Amino acid sequence: RRHRKEGRITPEQLKARLSPGALGMMEEKIEIGRWYPIQIFCELLDLDWEIGGHRDPNYMRVSGEQAAERLFNSGIYQQLSYAERVGRVRARDDLIRQSKLITTITGTLYNFLTFEVRLEPDRRDELQIYYGNAASFSEALRYTTEGFMNQINKRQKSAARWCSRRERPDLVIFTLPLPKRLLES
After folding, report:
1. Which residues of 161-170 are buried (b: 16+ CB within 10 A; e: fewer)?
2. Could you report the per-residue pLDDT of 23-46, keeping only the tens digit for each?
3. 12, 37, 104, 177: which has the fewest Cβ within 10 Å?
4. In a domain, 152, yes or no
5. How confident is the model at residue 133 (pLDDT cuts 50, 70, 90)?
6. Cβ count near 117 (within 10 Å)
7. Which residues pair with 173 in a beta bridge?
8. What phi and psi values does residue 114 have, to the nearest 5 degrees?
9. In terms of pLDDT, which residue wins out, 59 or 108?
10. CA–CA separation, 48 vs 42, rounded Å?
């Protein structure tokens, strides 16, 4: 709506570009934390990324940070309050446990994904979260999710930042470099 209102895209261009479902969703008030069909949601994210961000990944990361802030402020997800209360982890096992808890939020929003939190023996310097069944998880959504996860880290007073890569069409891997204090534990 913002891009249409600001004259960046015409109603005719929107009609040619978006599915009827996405056009309809544009007219709704988007509710934070509500589930939306992923294809429609990604259509709108991709459009925003192209028109608003000129396909700059950082544009979507900032969008993800802002979405995390809205969810933190809404109080909808107890997992976010918990993550902020516990702050920085002190041991590798705590990091895995906390990461699994946070992925439950993602699982609520994107119920088609499968998740696996890993500390690979050959990559002991990073935490990995595998998003399986991720073919519908667009690149714009991938960068938005990086921003979302990084905002959680900021709230925990952690300087570590997530990044991601698409390993295969149906697999996205998020990685977090481990702080030195966790490399010895």
Report:
1. ebbbeeeeee
2. 999 888 777 667 789 999 999 999
3. 12
4. yes
5. very high
6. 18
7. 130, 165
8. -115, 150
9. 59
10. 10
For residue 53, the number of C-alpha atoms closer than 13 Å in the C-beta half-sphere is 20
User: Do residues 163 and 175 touch, judged by C-beta distance below 8 A?
Assistant: yes
Q: Is residue 49 part of a domain?
A: no
In which residue are the tokens 């479902």 written? 21
DSSP-derived secondary structure for 5-54: HTTSS-HHHHHHHS-HHHHHHHTSPPPTT----HHHHHHHHHHHHHHTTT
Range in 24-33, 105-114, 137-146, 164-173 the model is least confident about? 24-33
Q: Using the 8-state DSSP alphabet, how is residue 116 labeled?
A: E
Mapped onto helix, strand or coil, the DSSP state of residue 55 is: coil
To which residue do tokens 């891009």 refer?
Answer: 3
And the tokens for 23? 């056009």
Residue 8: which of 63, 50, 51, 71 has the closest Cα?
51
Cβ atoms of 144 and 63 within 8 Å: the answer is yes
Residue 150 forms part of a structural domain: yes
**Residue indicated by tokens 């990604």:** 42
CATH no. for residue 137?
3.30.1380.20
- What's the domain range around 102? 54-183
